[in-house]
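forwarding from the other thread:

> can someone predict this with S-adenosylmethionine?

sure thing
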Amino acid sequence: MTIDEYLGITKDVAGYLCPEEGYLLYQLASKASSNCKCVLEIGALEGLSGISMALSGRHVISVDLWDNTEVFSKGQIVPHLICDIERYKNNFKNKLLTNYTTYKMTSEEASLKIKNLNEIGLIFIDGEHSYEGIKKDIDIWFPLLKDHLCWFVFHDYANSDKIRQAVNEWLSTHLNNIVDIKGIDSTVAFLFTPQ
Ligand SMILES: C[S@@+](CC[C@H](N)C(=O)[O-])C[C@H]1O[C@@H](n2cnc3c(N)ncnc32)[C@H](O)[C@@H]1O
């Protein structure tokens, strides 16, 4: 799928990704290890990142609180975004996509429930946007996904010092296991391989 075709499908879905970031997610999900049927996202909101990855044909596992809270950006309410699971599901339905599973709970709670971990070839971390939040997500998910080839993808890496710090701390102890890196706008992706 070209980026223009991708944009034609996703342009009416609200979310936090710029078009190139969404297309990168689509591409990474498409080329995740063929042994892996699924991709996982922490922080789904209305489904833009999930739909981007679902267009690859992989099964998307989306984890979010979906607590109907208002969405803030730079201290302001973003009026067109609502953290509501029905909006997520409707967006998938409008695109005729059924290849997804939702976990309406915290990232930590989901990590205790999701069992097909060796089928996950990509994790997109876009949930709690603080140093502690990113570190917690890495600490939760890395031990569960480190035994097979897996993309670790982080949103807001380039525009948040705190997120970059948490990711770089993880990276510094696993540099020898990183076999590919991709990035666009604020998103960065590392392909981790066990050695
Ligand atoms: C920036 S939004 C995600 C944007 C989405 N990926 C997109 O493409 O538009 C962050 C989301 O993370 C969710 N979230 C925050 N903390 C979380 C946690 N501890 N566990 C699960 N989801 C969380 C919020 O409810 C919110 O919907």
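The longest strand covers residues 76-82. thats all i got for now
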